[in-house]
Amino acid sequence: MAGGNGARLWPASTPDHPKHLLGLAPGAASLLATTLDRARAWAASQRTFVVTTAAQRPAILALTPELPPEHIIAEPAGRNTAPCLHHAMLRVHAALRAADWSPAALRSAVVLALPADHHIRDPRGLDRALRAAIAHAAAAQEIVTLGVQPTAPDTGYGYIERAEQPLHSGSPALFHARRFIEKPDAARAREFFDSGRFLWNAGIFAFPLLRTLAAIDEHAPELAAAFAPVAAALAIGDDAALTAALTAAYDRAPAQPIDVALLEKLPDLRVIPVEIGWDDLGSWAAVHALAERDLQGNAALAPPGVTLQIADSQDTLVWSDDAEIAVLGVRGLAVIASGGKILVCPLDRAQEIRALAAHSAAQRRREP
Question: How far, in Å, CA of 154 to CA of 149, rounded?
Fold first, then answer.
């Protein structure tokens, strides 16, 4: 899933060149490229799909020459993750049928859904958890999600409540997932953290393909009805009909996350708790926390040949694509130069940058 705009990392992240096309530093491998590298452990290029926006598709095509071009799927509009994932699974189903998969093979097919803009410090831990999720999803025909063990009572993430006891004594542990909770306030986040039962929702899923499509038909009838013409056009390979059906489907489908549209309605949703060094890089404060820092807590991130100076300063992040920057006598700031734009803000207010990004986009739309 590579369709977000990463507004909280403005100005480096923009709608046309969003967070998943950035790396942890200017010029580093993009988050999308890193995600695709991890995905090769579970699926060959011929079984890998990227869902993105029409505006971002050309950049992603250029970044992923190893993928079939038809596997870079452009959504006609952003409608949250339920339409995105349903659309993707219909594409996967059509591709597998076109490849003459037998009914038995289709019944065992599992689709991994991976956000393209996350950083994982322990990819081996992720690999172990996902292999367990795949095995359970295929054998039990149950959807499995990964829940990140919280390291703090964070209000910036959604949460998953798990059952008290695991379903079996194996490793990794597998629990019944009771409910999803949107981003809580500070008091509830502290309650969730202290209980030990709540996990961060990382948006990583193992979907048994046919079971999930049937569950959408049963539990999300509006979503299923909106995409029924898309499924029909895919079945007959009619590209013109598909384009028209997709536009209509995204106009009609409820704009909901997959957990609201489907998952919280299922009695047999499962979750595997993980500690994999996960971060969704949701702010410049998160980038600063992951970057290599000097003894004063400063991080300077720029491509080779770009000079950055940080003097008599503490706990500051300086990021630049190509401008030389010097800072003196500051503490706790983000100083970002990218694409001819400059951002200066306290790191502890980095979550507020989304509003600045929206204002910048509105100004561009008003320009003649």
Answer: 11
Q: What is the DSSP string of 126-151?
A: HHHHHHHHHHHHHHH---EEEEEPPS
Q: How far is CA 93 from CA 43, 110, 232, 253, 348, in A?
A: 15, 11, 12, 20, 45
Report the distance separating Cα 354 and Cα 6, nearest Å. Answer: 8
User: Domain 7-279's class?
Assistant: alpha beta
CA distance 232 to 216: 16
Other beta carbons within 10 angstroms of residue 103's beta carbon come to 8
Distances in whole angstroms, Cα of residue 278 to Cα of each of 1, 126, 179, 180: 17, 9, 21, 19
Torsion of CA 179, 119, 72, 63, to 10 degrees: 170
On whether the CB atoms of residues 332 and 315 are closer than 8 A, the answer is: yes
**What's the whole-model pTM score?**
0.93
pLDDT, tens only, 144-202: 999 999 999 998 899 999 999 999 888 899 999 999 999 999 999 999 999 999 999 99
Domain map of the chain by residue range? 7-279, 284-366
